[in-house]
Design goal:
Blueprint lengths: L18 H5 L3 H26 L4 H20 L7 H18 L22 H18 L4 H12 L4 H8 L3 H21 L8
Length: 201
């Protein structure tokens, strides 16, 4: 996997190659280019999303590798996502759902959080504050039902439009809005129990 100290752009890098370069690439090289571009741009997003969906810190790397193996397979077969971020979220949700169904991951002791690779553009104090805040949010999300937290994470935290959220999760739009409302309520209640003020946006 890529060195955890690397800091690729957090925003999405277009998957398209320039027309002149694209014309000279065979399909296998084109899919490899798309995969490398997507991985470099989004591996931090995938790692954090998996944690926010309930994957334990010690298992995030393994589950993240499974997600990117699926990405590689789909790209090799010619699948081109129209909205890469929501496409990745759907794959993360599927992987997290499978993970949580495994009995060996249930009722395990809490772990120290390990969200988000260090960002060298931040000073040590800013990174520590960011890390601690992410860890607190992850622990609160762990109290939520996966289906509800998936909508909350994808919309309120990732900023995906609700129609894309519904499509990624394979649910009706009205159901997505209902889960969002319930997830926000549950998040606020869990935050209060944990001694944190405020709630999801």
């Amino acid at each position: 996997m890529t060195d955890s100290t690397a800091t690729p752009p957090f925003s999405m890098v277009p998957l398209e190659v320039s027309p002149s370069s694209k014309a000279s690439l065979p399909p296998s090289d084109l899919s490899a280019f798309a995969f490398r571009t997507l991985f470099d741009a989004e591996f931090r997003y995938v790692w954090n999303t998996l944690r926010y969906l309930g994957v334990r810190p010690s298992d995030v790397q393994d589950v993240g590798q499974e997600v990117f193996l699926t990405v590689h397979k789909k790209l090799t077969l010619g699948e081109v996502p129209r909205t890469p971020r929501s496409w990745l979220f759907a794959l993360c949700h599927h992987a997290a759902s499978n993970y949580r169904q495994l009995a060996r991951h249930r009722r395990l002791a809490p772990e120290d959080e390990a969200l988000d690779a260090a960002d060298p553009t931040k000073n040590a104090e800013a990174h520590l504050v960011s890390h601690q805040e992410s860890a607190r949010v992850a622990r609160i999300l762990d109290a939520l039902d996966l289906d509800r937290r998936a909508v909350l994470v994808s919309h309120d935290m990732d900023g995906l439009p609700m129609p894309e959220v519904a499509l990624a999760l394979g649910i009706p739009l009205n159901t997505a809005y209902s889960r969002l409302r319930l997830a926000r309520r549950d998040f606020v209640a869990a935050a209060r129990r944990a001694g944190m003020g405020g709630g999801a946006s």
